[in-house]
Amino acid sequence: MKKLNKLNKPLSFSNQKGIGDRGLTLIELLVVVTIMGVIAGIAVYSYVRIIEKTEEDVCDANALLLKREYERSLVLENIDHSDVFFASFLMGSSVESCEGCEFTYEDGDVLCNKRTEGDKDENGEVPFF
């Protein structure tokens, strides 16, 4: 048995205000597509930034691991640092370098050529564009 409203007509839920049977207008579709485009743009930018940050973190971790292994090797061999010994150490090391990265040993730190201090401003911070 159908429910009746106050005017003794069957209740109809399809003719309510909103989308109903008429569908979406072109303006509504444009607004939805624009909002989805903005959200997608933000998501892609965030994803790319997360990937870049992860690559930087891996490079830092590899440099720290190389530094510890190299200093351990210096102590075990009982020798001082030399560029020749560091180069031979890198060739025999199991630590993989990042893509296009070359490690150097300067002032007690292992540095990656991709992550130079030249990227920082006079305050030691990376400039914001």
From TrEMBL:
It is found in: Cell surface. InterPro entries: N_methyl_site, Pilin-like. GO terms for cellular component: cell surface. Signal peptide: none annotated. The chain crosses the membrane at residues 26-48. Pfam families: N_methyl (PF07963). Keywords: Competence, Membrane, Transmembrane, Transmembrane helix. GO terms for biological process: establishment of competence for transformation. It comes from the Bacteria. NCBIfam families: IV_pilin_GFxxxE. This is Prepilin-type N-terminal cleavage/methylation domain-containing protein.
